[in-house]
TrEMBL record:
The keyword Zinc does not apply. It comes from Streptomyces durmitorensis. Residues 3-71 form the HTH gntR-type domain. SMART domains: HTH_GNTR (SM00345). Gene3D superfamilies: Chorismate lyase-like, Winged helix-like DNA-binding domain superfamily/Winged helix DNA-binding domain. This is GntR family transcriptional regulator. Pfam families: GntR. Signal peptide: none annotated. Keywords: DNA-binding, Transcription, Transcription regulation.
Amino acid sequence: MPEARYRRIADDIRHRIANGEWRTGESLPSRRVMAGEYGVHHETVNLAYTLLRRTGALEGEERKQVVVAHPPAVRTLTDADAVWPYSSETTDTRPRPATEELAERLGVPVRTMLQHETVECLDPGGRSALLASTWWRGRRQPHVAFSAELDVVPLGADQAHALGLLVDTLALRVVRTRLDAHGTPVETADLILPMDRWRIRLSG
């Protein structure tokens, strides 16, 4: 019963963390070392580590060193148009052709070339708190209002890597579209927020 075995190992590691064997930010032994300790194949330990990463007990990239996760700061998003108050890094500025969804959101033909940027917003401890990908046509225009819609999406590979989560982990997505004085969309954005770090309370 390999599945039951890796889940039992994950539970045991969770208890050992709770008992102080490894502290927050401390590296766990390698998968091979832990496999020897538990008397299993290292892939079984890898499954346990993956489960613990998915549930937030550990953090680190797939197949690499893992550490005991810091409890995430849980923030509440009340204004989807607010300026991020901490540091941020722009990670991608490549123009993109408008997909059907983006074309509908901006009121442009499909495959219109759009300006684009993805910004990784960091919390005070330097951990990625959210990703904001924004698209607009031509020069950036001022806005006077915005609309926001909330849904849930699986993370793609780049998003998961930036946020320290697993591919296909579900995350909150706020679709924010900025409008000019005539109500015409001037830019649209996807705000990707990990569920373990955010609550949403939108008004408007």
